[in-house]
Amino acid sequence: MQPERDVDVLFSEATLAARVRELGAAIACDYSGKDLLLISVLKGSFVFTADLARAISVPLALEFLGLKSYGGEQSSTGVVQITSDLTRPIEGRDVLIVEDIVDTGLTMQYLQKNLATRNPRSLKLCTLLNKPARARVATTIDYLGFTIEDVFVVGYGLDWDERYRNLPYLGVVRQQGEV
Ligand code: PRP
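Above: inputs. Below: predicted complex with PRP.
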């Protein structure tokens, strides 16, 4: 796919694929013989989850959790609503949250607390992206794809006002006036 005219490529398809393969191999190694359950946080992580799951060579199960965070167009406030909950209990399971990006960390803070009350055997986090410059709370990340600067990223599942999720690469939207 040709890059969109107003989006600069940050990580190409090939770069993403290589990193996802490495993450999948590390997760497969750590979860061998365990009861791995991936929880994909919608909507942003749907592409990452699909690729990551196929890069993990040990048996796993998948669940999806819909979250909506209230705030401005480009930031969250920490007020989070579960729009679509898990379909079954996670008690006793080895849960790995799959997220696209940790920005302020407020969404993860809410979700990790919420899931911990459901008594999983273990609870870890895999996020494709971390943006430490914007962190408002500390987040323990067990598997990380890339650390990024304070730029607004789109593509590979991530949106700007619901647009760009289908881009196969990760990009930065050029602001008006930039060439
Ligand atoms: C994004 C992203 C994370 C959250 C991170 O979701 O997928 O869930 O924001 O932000 P935080 O660390 O500042 O809390 P968004 O609310 O944009 O919804 P979406 O995944 O449906 O696009």
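The two ends are 21 Å apart (CA to CA).
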